Protein 1
Amino acid sequence: MSLDDASVPVIPRGVRLHMDKVRDRWVLLAPERTIALDPIAHAILQEIDGIRSFGAIVAGLAEKYAAPPEQIKGDAGEYIQGLIDRRILETAP
Amino acid sequence: MRIPPPIAMLAELTHRCPLSCPYCSNPIALAQKDQELPTETWISAFEQAAELGVLQLHLSGGEPASRPDLTELISGARAAGLYTNLITSAIGITERRLAALDEAGLDHIQLSLQGTDAEMADHIGGYKGGYKRKMQAAGWIKDLGIPLTLNTVLHRKNLHQLPRAIEMALEMGARRLEVAIVQFHGWALKNRNVLMPTKEQAAEASRIVDEARVRLKGQLVLDYVPADYHSDTPKRCMGGWGMLGLNIAPDGQVLPCHAAQTIENLTFQSIRDTSLRDIWYDGAAFNAYRGEDWMQEPCRSCELKKRDFGGCRCQAMAIAGDPAATDPVCGKSPLNARVKAMVAENNASTDGTLIYRTL
């Protein structure tokens, strides 16, 4: 399964971005899970506001990082879908 | 060796509980109410934990809702920056109280399930009417939208209910289901001969979990703790002694794991008089089984020691009588034949009588 451009990813209740000051890194806190974020993963998750579509997020990241949209779409899509499969992210109904 | 900061803390707020499950993970000698830490000491412990590097706080018991200050404790933990997980039977929690916990910033609830119908659940929990009250609370949790994990402890008497437990997790709107086959510590050790699943049951549980993981991908996450004693490889206990997490008992003793008090040669420090940082980094109990220097043969020369850390220290204590021995569940342990014989004997035996937890 992969995300289509119109779907809207959501960070649901019970999941939040957190600055781990002791280890100097960003993490995603979720039920019974702590996911360490590299700068790319953090950049993707920061764009998820529950309003913008996946297509808009990809376009935004491509512009911000001056990277080819197709590549961003592949990487970000795979990352977000992986978290959806683990019930950490959701898509808006 | 470099000691990493802890990432998780289990706060056993109280040993009081309306249930008396015969597999309770609490120690046999339970802390009485007058020994429990006051609110301000718990909140200080949460602040110290966050400063030390703890990210996830598990509020447990006993039944944590037996503490009248639970809402205040959750507020304090959230203010300290911790992710708050309430581990509860939900029996005795009112709708109003749940709403207050929600308001205080509770992140997540882990709800225990003793059985999938009133007859089984009330028999195992030792509390008539408990199942009905739990199901009512599950409805309120769903209505409030508090993220939920359902946790079911399975053993010989209720393992056949696993398929229904999976359905119930979906009906309750849980994102996760923990399928934990009973581990023999605390009260479960007293009931080992009655609770140990048969080899056939243990294999069937693994098959059901594997199937459900595929079928429910993206819908329900299943975490699985396989049957104790049935494997040839020991559990990777605690992700290494004193490496990932710590536990504070109701009276303030700080422990490397919830069963550590069964290791009689260890002495534990209290949060009442020593800082969490000093206990974590310098405490004798935390350093006792860190790294590999304490290991004996066959662990010492085994390449698997970096993966399983020699197994569970409390299990080594319980079966070998020596907390530094190789976990006797390991196929390489000289005591493994004794474990295998015990499992085989148990496989053939019929039901005995449960010993319930008493305070």
Note: Chain A has a mean pLDDT of 95.
Protein 2
Amino acid sequence: MGRPSHRLRFAVGLALAGGLGVGVAHLLLKNEVQQASVAREERKGVVALQALADLVERAGRRGEGIRRAVSAWQGANPSVRLARVVAFEGISLEASTAPEDQGDKAAPRRLSRDEKSLYDLGQRLRTAVTTNREEGGARKEEIEISTTHAGALALAAPVTEDGAVVGIVTVETQPLAAPARPSLLYAILAWAGPLVLFVLLALLVGERRAWLAAVAVSCLALGFGAYAAHSLARVEQERIRSHEAVAEFALAQAGTVRAVLSDLGLAATPPLVPSAWDADAFRRPRGFLTESGKLDEARLRTNADAASGQALRALILAGVVALGLLLAIGLGGVHRVAAALVANRQAYYYVVPAMIGMIVLVFFPFIYGITLSFTDSNLYSVNQPITETWIGLRNYGDILGDVGIAQRAADGSLVFNYLNFYWTLLYTVVWTVTNVTAGVTVGLLLALILNTKGLAGKPIYRVLLIMPWAMPNYITALIWKGMFHRQYGVVNHVIRLFGGQGVSWFEKPFTSFLTALATNGWLSFPFMMVVSLGALQSIPGEIYEAARVDGASRWQQFRAITLPSLKPALVPAVILSVIWTFNMFNIPYLVTQGEPGSSTEILVTQSYKFAFERYRYGYAAAYSTIIFGILLVYGAIQNRVSKATEAI
Amino acid sequence: MKRTRSLFTLVGFLALGSVGIAQAGELVVWHAYRAEEKAAFEKVAKAYEATKPGTTVTLLAIPYDAFADKITAAVPRGKGPDVFIFAQDKLGGWIEAGNTVEPIDFYLDEPTKARFIPTTMEAMTYRGTVYGLPMNYKAITLIYNKKLVTAPPKTDVELVALAKKLTDKGAGRFGLAYSYADYWYHASLQNAFGGRVFDAGAPVLNNPENVKAALFLQKWIKEGFLPAEPSTALVTSLFNEGKAAIVFSGSWFLGEIAKGVDYGLAPLPTIAEAGGKPMRPWMTVEGMYVAAPSKQKDLAYDFVKFVTDVKAATVMAVEGRQNPANKKAYEDPKVGKDPILAAFRAQAEVAIPTPNVPEMTMVWSPATTAMNTITRGTSPQAALDKAQAQLLKDVAGLRKRP
């Protein structure tokens, strides 16, 4: 390998980055133009559809008059292929201009079996209108638009009578023409131009890396920037064209409807409102047309800023990625990575299967969970793509920003908000600390007792004391819950034997906490006991002999010899226990069930309840990510601290 | 070697294909039945195949715990069955999620609709559209120990008097035992007072009737004839040991009763304070639904119609021990004169189907918290107000669009 040629690297980098940037920008432009064209046709379709619905409602919804009106309307609209009116009463097709509905299949007739989808469409729209009205919002679409196999638009809207939906109108347009594609010439020019310019300038600059970098970046900026400006201008042009076309179309439709009504001998009262026909999927007028049907200039301008903002963001992202690629190739990063891969080929072959397994089983679900936390996914929106339910950091804001743990009630006492994140965090920390302390203390105590020389029946005691850990903790949790029953529980029975009154354990947060503590303490001491016992048995007896000879008391022996020798074994056990207890789902879920009033929930059970009892998947995912963050920080701190103690 | 390998692949593909949506003349049905219900259902499916030669009905039994999740995951993606059987409580959620349940209004005619108990048909209807045909229903009723109770009480005054007589708290004996802290059981009392959870789609957990019902329950608890902290396990063990004379529970309880206990069934009593109105329990109605992505919708609907017809319903009732939703099935003395089936039929007259709206799944969590505080003596108005606030927040979180 000779000396690296910076000029060559930057040239290659500029070619690739420029290609990527301009290519992406061109694709974005093509997409925008296509979408604008489709949106324009959809808007015109909706205007036609709403005009027809208006006409049908004014002409009486059923009968011969309707059929004449619909065929007259169809005649005046060559861009529409067919129009149908369906009434729910009698499941009947009231009017149809479809070529197949002639002769014995002419309207009016009952819908046939293979037209069930039309009837179901009608029911869906009816349900949507009632739902939106009940909820006072706009959640379900009241106009359904789809594309047929032939590339035409099929639209459907409800027909109302006295506020109730009694039928639908459907309209199918002629197959849509292919949208104009932006010319490739500009894109090629925007790519080749800077490249040629760079090559010429590079000859002047020579092999100086910094200068070359600066020149390459400016050439990229020039080419990409010019193309981006061209794209934005083209998009704006399309937008204005759309609005003008729709306004013109609406005026024409108003004229048609007026003509058909006068043909039928009906007056156009109340007056037609073409601006209401240009509506979104929830039948809310878009507001671009004034009452008379002309374009509203002010609204046009404000909409421009919103639309161009989004396009600009996409282009900036593409530009940044292209810049990154240029610098990565130009400064030699890519070359170094490729060289490393080639040199260590064998190693990578061995690692690849495990990498694939880890990616599929660990990293993908993990990344998916984090992505879910940025969305508003819930029971209703599971089938929607993630881009539609994106809300960014709002979940995190809701969880971490809600600091209202307690409020003062009218009588001055503190009322805690148990669903608050910080309360649950506080409780989880208290839970973890008390449990680990209890487990370690009891475990250590029992290990010290078991470690006495000459204890009879040691194997029996060991087996008995391991039993709590060996039994499935699901079952022990349920048994302990039964033991704390107010009337029939063993614990209250024993208290009554000693003359006390039974305690209603699950009535107050503190006593409820004690039940969970007792259960988890019982379950966790065997592990600590085993670890301590193992560590104790590895301490040579001679050290104790020496200490006794020196006159140390038993307590001094414990503090000076036993504890420090236990540290290397206990510290990892404590770290493990902290993480296990922090995430111990079974005990709070089964024993206290969060009673009373969610006050004894830990972070994981709270997250579970948000996901599977309240069905707020995005919120619960954010909760879980925060739990992960907390444990990550704890793990990092613990690592640093334990390294210090190992040095002793 | 090569031949066996290709044979295995062929068999494998066939097996894979047969589990999902079937070919012409084949139906795939998913259910969660076990033991007698499963045997009865298989008999009904065979009978259907006999009426339509050339049709095969493949039944797949799926464990109950995983059933709802499997439907939610598999059906919208086209990998589910043509027909499936489930209770109405998840119906609203599946309809809102889309592409799971097919509306059958188009096929349904008046005679078919008229064969069912009207309230069971209501359970299959969501926002005015019918999505399935009801097969059977489950509701709670009064179950009493014949040795301790000679005549079951008809009014709540009689019930309280009888229960107090049979209660001895020190010995752990109680006159009446039921999971009164479970909102689903408490609904029977609440509905007697005219209480409800939703009013035209809007949650009204804290309306005055619900508060009145909660106060009434607290009165019962104060009288002392109900055990504290009742769980279903406690109620079962008390009844089996003869320590509970009367229990409010459903057909699932009958299978847990010990051999030596002679039990009888009676309708739930009327409540004098509610104007003599009867206790109206919530009814879980199991329905058969046609899956939306099915390619055999006509055939599927035909099968559903067959299984809910008189002959099949009678088989499911007599052999499967289900409570049929088909009115005419009770004309057969094997069904109509069976004491258990007749008792539940009498109870069904006043039962109300559990709301099938998707927001219902949000209700259980705040309602359970409220019931737990109410049974411990706190003010029902305050507890229900809190539950209502929480429910509104949860429902709003579900309904809002970004």
Note: The interface with chain B takes residues 91, 111, 113, 116, 119-120, 123, 126-127, 130-131, 134-135, 137-139, 376, 378-380, 382-383, 389-391, 419, 482, 485-488, 504, 506-507, 595-598, 609, 613-616, 619 of chain A (CB under 8 Å).
